[in-house]
Each structure stands twice: as structure tokens, then as C-alpha cells.
Request: fold
Amino acid sequence: MSAPEPRVRLLTRPGCHLCDDARTVVEAVCAELGERYDEVSIDDDPELTRRYGEEIPVTFVDGRQHDYWRVDPVRLRRALGA
Reply:
């Protein structure tokens, strides 16, 4: 039996200080709530770069765009049902 898909996805790019800040918040909230997240670099996908290049970091919860540029831990907890 495989693990369920992570509920949170974080789109980032190397060298992005806002991405570093977002990762810290996402890691903390997911650890607190027992949720998993994954991280995808938009630099690895031309379509993601075209679509989100000016908005990173971008967070998705359950496949829907949740935030961009900054991650508010209260909003993220609420979106995850906490």
C-alpha cells in the first residue's frame, strides 16, 4: 500500500529567498498537523515557468492554488482543516 499523495505542493525556484521563507512555514505547519508536502522547482518544467514564473513561491492545497509569494501559517492551517 503506497502513501497518499501530499496535500500540499510548493512550487519554488533555486535561489529564491521567498521560497526559503515559504518552505519554512510549510514544513512547520505540515509537521504540526501530520501532513505531507512536496516541492517542485518550476525551473524543471517550461510550462510551470511560463505560468508561475512571476508568482513563486506558489502553494497548492489538495490540488488547488492556495497562495503565492508568502505563506500565512494561519491560512494554511485553516485550509488543511485545523
